Amino acid sequence: MTIKSAPAPAEPELLPVSASPGGQRLNLLGCSRDQLQELFADMGQARFRASQVMQWVHQQGVNDFQAMTNLAKALRQELQVHSEVRAPQVVREQHSSDGTRKWLLRVDAGNCIETVFIPESNRGTLCISSQVGCALNCTFCSTARQGFNRNLSSAEIVGQLWLANQALGSCADGRKVITNVVLMGMGEPLLNFDAVTSALDVLLEDFAYGLARRRVTLSTAGHVPGIDRLARRQPVALAVSLHAANDTLRDSLVPLNKTYPIAQLLAACQRYLEQDSKQRITFEYVMLDDINDSLSDARQLVRLLAHVPAKVNLIPFNPFPGAPYRCSPPQRIRDFQSLLQDKGLLSMTRKTRGDDIDAACGQLAGDIIARSARVRRARQDKARS
Q1: In percent, how much of the chain has pLDDT > 70?
Q2: What structural domains does the chain harbor?
Q3: Which of 32, 56, 83, 98 is spaced 20 to 30 A from 72 at the CA atom?
């Protein structure tokens, strides 16, 4: 394993993010084509300038307006004054021996998020965050230990893809390395609905990244109103963090289930599928030793999903310091999957990636934040003494 770190002070304390001149410049990374068209119309410019700027920013990776040579010099200068293209700042980058890359990104003076690239033979998947921390308190999740700090803006969400594209470059034939994007990083996307769906507009835009809906997946812990809103607003592929086949167990693993129990959740999934009869819901199921991994649990899961077009993604639990669970043994995971498949339920086991780096979602950010807090406390104690 090699770890590349951005220049940083000797102590692991988060430094202030340099503010934009005046502090009010519009970050174009988060703007849809419609929004940019309105912006240019207000500037007295032709609306097609929106498409040109999007191509420069998202397809060419340009963040210098003076390099946008098909724009008039006066327009470039005006954009320079009133807008910017600014992605989150890389604090640390980790490379796994299996090709997985993980970035710790600073979004403001005190907050960091994580973005992970996972290469496979037929695709390259980028896992991005939607919030700093998470308020849902799922008991098996490293991010939950941090609590909730704030929502990300649409620019901060899109900026993760923009930055990763710059870092990864293109394939030999010119194709982008990143073919799929999943909102499965830090946070609950449906609790940051407006910024997330605005970011999705950019990801799907032909003049930006041009991703097909089936190549963009949003993962939710089961926020039922948000699922219904997403179906109306931007119906990308949907993944549901299920992790249990009965309410009693799911209440303890995913506290949101107390508000939106499984029956309500599955009804929302059925409604979601009405907009695309060929789609399946992916149900994520983390495998926890002696908690939810018995053959009885598997049979209950089969019965639960019998009438839902579904595929089940079994996820070996990724331990983190202080975690109250262990990962299910490999043979038990295989037996669990075999039972699902024998009963006709499409199932796969997620390949464990990034074992030699801080792989659990939120682990790297949580480690940095915790060390920063220790440094601040030590300074305060020293000042008092």
Answers
A1: 84
A2: 25-84 (1.10.150.530), 89-370 (3.20.20.70)
A3: 32
